[in-house]
Amino acid sequence: GLVLGGLGAWGKIHGGPITRDLLAMYTTVVRAVPELILILILYFGVTDLVNQILVAFGHERIQISGVLAGIAVLGVVQGAYATEVLRGAIQSVPVGQIEAARAMGIPPGLLARRVTLPLMLANALPGLANLWLIATKDTALLAVVGFAELTQQTRQAAGATKAYFTFFMAAGLLYLLLSILSTWGFARLERRARRGLPEVRG
User: Fold this and answer.
1) What are the CA-CA distances from residue 166 to residues 114, 169, 172 (Å)?
2) Which residues contact 163 (CB under 8 A, 6 or more apart)?
3) Are 121 and 89 contacting, i.e. CB atoms less than 8 angstroms apart?
4) How far is CA 41 from each of CA 65, 74, 124, 127, 197, rounded to the nearest angstrom?
5) Residues 58, 60, 65, 71, Cα dihedral to 10°
6) How far, in Å, CA of 52 to CA of 46, rounded?
7) What's the rounded Cα separation, in Å, for the pair 105 and 201?
8) How far apart are alpha carbons 86 and 128 in whole angstroms?
9) Mind listing the pLDDT tens digit for each residue in 111-133?
């Protein structure tokens, strides 16, 4: 998702009109359709379409892995959101600093690595942290395609033992612990990224 977001942000800023229109359609559609629907479309709809094409050409039917389908959908969804987060972060970099670097003759690759990336990272990290937390919870949706993730395992264990409160509380605490650790890690990254930058108050 982060790779897709980086490519999408670059395309929205530096791409031609067609590229920008296609990326706008991608981010709009993906952010509008629920992840569960996208998982079902890819896992069942795309699998059926591919199999119809394969059978028409005399090949055997295939079965897409539920895990791969879930990962692909979550990656595409995260890519759409990350595109907008990274685009906004890149556009928040002061134009004067970019122009000053160009005036000094810094090549584009070095300018991106030493000027644009460090300055935009501090602004992108809060949004990317939110996307990461959303992604960790969205993995529960993969249960619909048979992936044995935490929520499905919890439901099965609770159903077998009838200890619903115990197992679902344990699952909730595991998600909470993951969120706390992730928030702590991103806070450290953000402090590191903001070293040397003016302190934001408000």
Assistant:
1) 50, 5, 10
2) 157
3) yes
4) 14, 13, 31, 27, 45
5) -10
6) 10
7) 34
8) 8
9) 888 888 888 888 899 999 999 98
Cβ 61 vs Cβ 76: under 8 Å:
no
CA 55 – CA 141 distance, rounded (Å): 30
Q: Residue length, the chain?
A: 202
Contact partners, residue 1, CB within 8 Å, separation at least 6: 74, 75, 76, 77, 78, 79, 81, 82, 131, 135
Compute the distance between CA of residue 75 and CA of residue 127 in angstroms, rounded to an integer.
Answer: 16
Residue 147 pLDDT > 70: no
Tokens (6 digits) for 44: 């069942």
Taking CA atoms, 40 is separated from 34, 47, 48, 88, 102, in Å, by 10, 10, 11, 31, 48
Q: Which two tokens stand for residue 124?
A: 């992108």
Span 63-110, pLDDT tens digits: 777 777 778 888 888 999 999 999 999 888 888 888 888 888 888 888
Helix axes 66-91, 117-138, angle to 10 degrees: 150
Q: Which two tokens stand for residue 188?
A: 């450290």
pTM (two decimals): 0.78
Answer yes or no: is pLDDT of 202 > 60: no
